[in-house]
Amino acid sequence: MLPRPQSVLLGLVLLGLAGASSAVEAQAVLHGRVTDAAGTPIPNANVYVNETAQGVATDEDGRYRLTSLSAGTYTMTVSAIGFQTVKERLALEKGETRAWNVSLATEVVRQDEVVVTGTMRETYVKESPVQVDVVGTDRLQQGRASSNFMDLIGSVGGLTTQLNCGVCGTNAIRVNGVEGANTAVLIDGMPIMGALASVYGLNGISPSIIDQVEVIKGPQSTLYGTQALGGVVNVLTKDPANTPTLSTHAYAKSTGEGSISLAASPEADRVKGFVSGTAVRMENDFDDNDDGFSDTARRSRLALFGKGTLSGPDGERRASVAAKFYGENRTGGPPNFTDDLRGSDVIYGESIYTRRGELMAEAWPPGLDRRLRLSGALTYHDQDSYYGTEHYVGTQKIAFGQATWNQEVSASLRVLAGASARYDVYDDNTPATATAEHRLIPGVFGQGEYAIGALTVLGGLRLDHHEEHGLVTAPRFSAKYRPTEATTVRASVGTGFRVVNVFTEDHAALTGSREVVFEESLDPERSRSVTVSLEQIIPFGANPLTLSIDGFYTRFSNKIIPNYDRSPNLIVYENLDGFSVTRGFSVGGNQNFTSIPLTYNASFTVSDVYTQDAGRRRSVTYAPDFTGSFGATYTLSPIGVEVEYAGRLTGPKRMPDYYVESFGRDRWSPTHATHDLKIKKEFLDVSGPTGIGVDTYLSVENILNYTQGSPLVDASAPFDRDNDGRPFDTIYTWGPMVGRTVSVGVRVNVR
Predict the structure, then answer these.
(1) Which of 364, 408, 485, 661 is the most core-located residue (most Cβ within 10 A)?
(2) Low-confidence ranges of the chain (pLDDT < 50)
(3) CATH architecture of the domain with range 236-738
(4) pTM above threshold 0.90
(5) CB of 479 closer than 8 Å to CB of 490
(6) Structural fold of domain 111-235
(7) Tens of pLDDT, residues 439-461
(8) Backbone dihedral region of 227: left (phi > 0), alpha (psi from -120 to 50 degrees) or beta?
(9) At 269, is the secondary structure helix, strand, or coil?
(10) C-alpha dihedral over 191, 193, 198, 201, to 10 degrees?
(11) Where do you find CATH 2.170.130.10 in the chain?
């Protein structure tokens, strides 16, 4: 077939501009049909040429046609909503007309579209009656380089990280404005990250071991027990079957931080493994805000991870065992403070030694079609810290076991029944723990999921027994209505509960010069929640936009809120006599273009977080009025360069009263934003003939160099505990502490 006149004319113009005199080279044509496994045509499937950024959508008969292709080898990508994406290398000769038909597997989606959190069984995102946000590692690391999971999780809509200490740099996750201790962080579905781990243990989750992150907003105690009042963040580790044989990743930052990760995936018969190690070191001091303290903590960290899976003769996974170790030395304070001075009253500094080990296992006994799942975990967490002269030592041991039975009663009805037991041993040197605490929490739970046409309903109930509080119930009801493939409506109501240990979860109780006061025995927090969501796929030719709108309302009773306002010298912990409310809405969207190599995601959340006590309504401290995030990726295919941008917006937060009254600081923090940019260049493709992939990147984080200034109060007298109304404090924190940062990194993968 001769080239079209338009193509010839364009070619002649280009050749003329280049000063060429040769004749136009004949172009290749690629055409064909995209169908499902049964041969049914798939309309609006995307057929895309990676190297040229040329793409086209199939017509109603599933047919497509690509012209003006030069001779060469191309990576072809074919995708459609609800089908598995196909990639294939094709070599085209000059003047060739090639017929290339593609069959897409139905009812199979990408791994990052499979969730286990919402209903405690594997199901596709679109089929889950519970709203689940799934974020892959590419999205997590969009625009920035970090070895710390906590630095990246803020890219998820509705999630923010709150800096809890301006000296040692600890932070916590907030879901829709709810405090971090109310969010259950799971590792492969196991609730082992609470208490002591909620302060420092989350830093030990290296991004190099993460496959994807699943987020559910609102109470989830029905399946996951205590600590799930605000929501659930489930970190799924990498599947050894889907990892390169060898890989490494190293970066260096302008702050002086350096990191290197090494990983390997050995395999023997039906056993596959994944081992990874990450080392991080940051020893540089800088004080750009001139408060006499380093703007970021010095730290050295080692995180080790190993995972092995056993498959049966049929290829299905039968068992999995994983082990993780995390050790970190963290030091914050004036530049001349060293570990040799920890505990000294000469120079105020904070020195935190953390050691944590985890062992996790799960198994599906043969002959039961994966209906029975057995899982368990053992953890040990040790913390040895000095906050000035205050010495805090704490250890926590957890043994967790769980059995679940998933039964498909009929095509419409699924049931889940489970039993769990959690045994905690906690000991520290605070007044709250005179002797080691031993706590056994057995529980049973169940849920039923029934589908009738476009409607799916789910109901569940959990019963836990606490020695101090007796039998605790946590019911939940959810519904999903999907009238079309493009429209999904979900609604959920549920309750949650949480047993609190203040010193393990609130860093402010340990740092600074305030005295901690307990005026009463603390009762468990409880919550009742309603969430509704709408997901709509809006067609824009071959570039559909996925739009989501969520509304949420949670009411807490017995809420434990640290009172910083009663006295400048005290932190008073007590159950709120009234109630606390978190309410708001969020809007999000994502779109993947085929005509241009561009993808983007955006979200915006408005929240109203307040307490109502004795007829007085007050905004909760440190809860932002609104947050937003935006990310985009654009690929310059001809030169193999990928450009990523990530932006984060944070609205005003109420600060504790004494900052205003004693030091004249603003009662509300300002609205601010940060912007990150990453440029990646791929030199070798791991799917190429060599089997080696090499790429490098340059990232600039906080491009506009925005910082909050000093987070410290009365930094000149850090040991002052006199009742002069001016105690040293480290938590006037609302924004970035570190300004513009440049990172350079390299990755190498071997297939």
Answers:
(1) 364
(2) 1-25, 107-112, 723
(3) Beta Barrel (2.40)
(4) no
(5) yes
(6) Ferric Hydroxamate Uptake Protein; Chain A, domain 1 (2.170.130)
(7) 899 999 999 999 999 999 999 99
(8) left
(9) coil
(10) -170
(11) 111-235
